[in-house]
Prior knowledge:
37% helix, 510 residues, elongated, four-stranded antiparallel beta sheet, eight-stranded mixed beta barrel, 20 helices, single chain, alpha+beta
Amino acid sequence: MLSAVLLLTQCSDWKTLRNKDITMEAFSDMKTPAFVFDHQAIAQQLNAMAEAEKPQTEADRRLNDYYKGGGAAVWIDAAGADYRADSLMAWLQQVGDIGMTPRAFCTAEIQRDLQRLRQLDFDEGKNSINRVAARLEYHLSKACLRYCYGQRFGFVNPHRVFNHLDVEKQDTARRFVKYRGLFDQDMELPGEDYAKNVIYKVAHHTIADYLREIQPQGTLYTTLKDMLPTAASDEQRRRIICNMERCRWRLHKPINEDEKRIVVNIPSYQLYAYGDDSVLHMRVVCGALKTKTPQLTSDIEWMEVNPQWVIPMSIMENDVARHAGDSAYFARNHYDIYERATNRQMEVGEVTRQMLLSGKYRVAQRSGSHNSLGRIVFRFKNKYSVFLHYTSNPSAFQRESRAISHGCVRVAKPFELAHFVLDNPDEWLLERIRIAMELKPETERGKNYVATHDEEERKKLIGYVPVKPRVPLYIIYYTMWPNHEGTLQEWPDVYGYDNVLWTNLQPMMR
């Protein structure tokens, strides 16, 4: 009889068994309680485990809510535990290949109780049939949900982590805290019903297919996974694992390698503009530690040549307002003050600090070589008033560490980038941009224009330039990312984000 039960429960596909309808309850005429499931007792045990377990992840919380709410067992039925448990275990045995520990997925507990159940190894105490069944049910569900949440959406939610990292404002009693936005990439996140959907797939015997479907795709993820076993040091292993986690985030607008695009990778301080058969690359300056450049996805929509810079309120509060009434400061920085409602230019001496902080006035820096945006700015929609632009201080591009801006990205080759984003521009359009940027003209028409017009006229030769079609822009943060030649390189963790990810991955690492 025992041999028959083992043959039944250990087969990898129960559907092929001629005796598949034989269940453990078929032996209930033995009148031995040790071999009879009590489904009410199992439900009570599941509720008790859910009440006692402290959730470490979103998956854990959803699991506990399910069983505390009276959710039915899905892995354990009258036949014991079938091939679905074996399918899950096959994936869990490989979690070391993605840098996680099997302990985080209860593999030892699952294996031990599977063996007890399949060998009918029960007693009257903590290893009674109902306690074993409840433990196995709970641990299978916990492992499955943890694995599905992580591989499908990422083990770390970057919106939750990075957008609660840097305090921008708070009152003295910390009753009000405003955090700086650092991550704004639209991505798929598990909804309220995701755990129930996974449980449904378990109950309807489709979990094996789903486990295959949720595996992260992409060349970079595969490359990093292949590198993990041969990592040269603990530091490199940690770096690989953190960048694998970034690859798990399912963006609604992922980088499309078949389209014209601009990618700014903050740790490398590099911009890569990918065309049909070429890559334009250049050094960039990014935000300082206190004013980090946010990770975001958008589209370059237009350019402005010789732009006016309207000072953001954050800079007004931290740097400008304290100089209210100081005419020399405003003149030195080429700043003008305007009343927002009327656009009337104000006298510096009549505007107080309180007026500047009221939001009713704007301070703008006049266009020209002194302008902080430089001679050109590339505009795209975003929440943070950050842009790509040139600079009045090009020497900053020679620095090794280039995290010094207020959040915008300064580009070292602005004209080349302008040429890149335009779709088949005519020569006179390019020449007008050159002339307005005070670059040397290359055509006879351009040379004649420079010879017959003064600097102020040349500066106003062109201003607003639409970008059609729009060019996708991705500002990302990868400490392992291919350079312009496609060679994977390691980059410094300039904002310490690898440390943040590593800390939040610990429930899966312990």
